[in-house]
């Protein structure tokens, strides 16, 4: 499974990824519809980029009240059907990385779908900070351990 990743040392927080994502997904140059987000906590100068990590144990899948979010066993990607979403925000609240975004034009919550395997944000990034590739074993192990621990904390189980 290929994943989207960022080299934070190369990211200059220009926001090009967010704008191009919004244009592709919602035909709007605003950032409201972007599936990748440039976050500035508390208005800080320092920023970070967040997007769906397609977690090993995806809290959004469990949280969805309509069962329209699924984990593809073959590819490892989390997919969602926007038909049937009634914007309850359960997936938004449960996401451990803050990657679920609200699309006001469609009144649904959604996440990055890697542009069906050809992410525009990677092509548009002027510094080359974004990449779309197979994760290293270290990255995969970290993401799976993080999502597993966070998932079990969310459902009230003690740390394993």
Summarize the structure.
Helix content is 28%, strand content 16%. It is built from five helices and eight strands. The strands form four sheets. A two-stranded antiparallel ribbon has the order 1-8.
Please, could you describe this protein's structure?
A hairpin with a 6-residue loop joins strand 4 and strand 5 (78-80). The protein contains five helices and eight strands. The two termini are 26 Å apart. The model has no long low-confidence stretch (mean pLDDT 84). It is of the alpha+beta class and 160 residues long. Helix content is 28%, strand content 16%. Strands 1-8 form a two-stranded antiparallel ribbon. A two-stranded antiparallel ribbon has the order 2-3. Strands 4-5 form a two-stranded antiparallel ribbon.
